[in-house]
Amino acid sequence: MRDTVLLSLALSALPVLAMAEVPKVVTDMPVVQSLTAQVMGDLGTPAVLLDQGANPHSYQMKPSQARALQEAGLLFWVGPEMTPWLSRAIDAAGGKVPQIALLHSDGTHLQSYVDDDDDDHDHDDDHDHDDDHDHDDHADADGHSHEGLDPHAWLDPHNAGNWVSVIAAALAKADPENAATYEANAKAAQERIDTLDKDLRAELTPVKDRPFVVYHAAYGYFAAHYGLQDEGSVAFGDATDPGAAHLSALRADLKAKGVVCAFPEASHDPRPMQRLIEGTEVRLGQPLDPEGTQITPGPDLYDTLMRTIGGNLSGCLGQ
């Protein structure tokens, strides 16, 4: 009788043990959380470190967020080029946080902030994704990166689809019992991204030859993927303010390049963009949100982010 009771107790505990094997997942910013949430599905909800509305390029973690990072079973992040503050936090944790820097995962298409064909390539080199990547050469001590590798790679749907596969593989390795679920969820996410890509291409093709400028240099991947004419930005790639000489040159380009629209950004003051186009025929478009910091976090965020960018671009450029 005693053995029967013990066996019953053991069997009743199995679902709890299985659930306990799902790793505690932490992500750096909303767009990565969205892709990861699609892969995890009902198995769990990944945490996101970046507060809603905060600048991902320069952020100070709260003590509770630092603890969450140290307790993470798995961290998915873009990489140190995007969030140098997180790179420092990983180092402070002794490099013991199991982590995947998605920007440096196999199959990711990379491009530079500057026109350099040698920097545009498929990232096919082998990497140890569980090790810290030292890419401090891309950013100075303040996290400012004005040239070199552009980290906003999720704005190319090809990369988002690739990252979903990378996330699923890492989760399956950490939690083999649920590998089939991660794989199925990743396939569904990729199909959703494919549909999104087709819809955006159809929407943007009619305006692909109409030049525009943006608030900060975040849209290179998006413009390249859809063949759009992004002619420059007010702020640098990490959203730091430029000098007067840069603004003067950009203003001259408005007429010289026939710029049609200028797009401010959701989390930044629109007045610099308004001053830039004052006295010109350039239209002010709706704000863009490349990092999704103004969108409610969750599995739908990536789709919403991309469709909103596409809709705002076509809405102004198509007038």
From TrEMBL:
Biased composition (Acidic residues): 114-123
Taxon lineage: Bacteria, Pseudomonadati, Pseudomonadota, Alphaproteobacteria, Rhodobacterales
Keyword Phosphoprotein: no
Compositionally biased residues, Basic and acidic residues: 124-153
Ranges where the record places region Disordered: 111-153
Signal peptide: 1-20
GO BP terms in the entry: zinc ion transport
UniProt similarity note: Belongs to the bacterial solute-binding protein 9 family.
InterPro entries linked to this entry: Bact_metal-bind_prot9, ZnuA-like
Keyword Zinc (UniProt): yes
Entry's Gene Ontology molecular function annotations: metal ion binding
UniProtKB keywords: Ion transport, Signal, Transport, Zinc, Zinc transport
Highest taxon of the lineage: Bacteria
Coiled-coil segments on the chain, per record: none
Transmembrane domains' residue ranges: none
Annotated protein name in UniProt: High-affinity zinc uptake system protein ZnuA
